[in-house]
Design brief:
This protein is mainly alpha-helical and about 180 residues long. It has two domains: about 90 residues, no CATH class; about 80 residues. Helices cover about 80% and strands about 0% of the residues. It is rod-shaped, with a radius of gyration of 61 Å.
Length: about 180
């Protein structure tokens, strides 16, 4: 066993400390040496572990403050922008036509076009019918006019000497053949 030279005051403090913690002075020195080596603490250069911890805590507080600053300046605005973009995209996607909507639209447009086509066919048929009716009316009017002119010609040419009746019949026949 070796002895260590310490002052009387230090020896008294060491003795009291060892008694309070129920260890002998040799165990204290061995454990203190292991502690300093294990934790990389130089008892002369370094301050107390509490002071060292305070420095570490202070440095950690600086790191945390930096992270919070980055969070406030960049991460939160970026997250909000991403969330807004996502909401806009979702909203725009919900407004976009889906296949089933397009198919329904095509079906409805086809129905509408068929309805218009049928309506146009009915109008065409009605128009053709109307034209035929007008044509028939004109024929009847033509025949009536022909008969009226014949009657008039007969009255003017009582003895069929002026050939007015023959000339009028020829004119009506020419008109009739041109209108066909």
């Amino acid at each position: 066993m070796k002895t260590i030279g310490v002052s009387d005051t230090t020896h008294t403090k060491l003795k009291r400390y060892c008694e309070n913690n129920d260890i002998n002075q040799g165990e204290f020195v061995e454990n203190a040496l292991k502690y300093f080596e294990k934790n990389g603490i130089h008892p002369v250069k370094h301050e107390s572990p509490a002071a060292e911890m305070t420095k570490i805590v202070k440095r950690l507080d600086q790191v945390v403050a930096f992270i919070k600053n980055q969070e406030n300046k960049f991460l939160r605005p970026m997250t909000e922008a991403v969330n807004m973009s996502e909401r806009r995209i979702q909203q725009d996607l919900s407004l976009l036509a889906k296949d089933e909507h397009l198919n329904n639209l095509i079906t409805e447009l086809n129905k509408l076009l068929n309805g218009y086509s049928n309506h146009i066919k009915r109008l065409d048929n009605e128009f053709i019918k109307h034209l035929k009716e007008q044509q028939e009316q004109h024929k009847q009017q033509h025949e009536q006019n022909k008969e009226a002119f014949k009657l008039l010609a007969n009255l003017m040419d009582a003895k069929n000497q002026t050939t007015i009746l023959k000339n009028l019949s020829n004119v009506f026949d020419q008109i009739k053949s041109q209108s066909k």
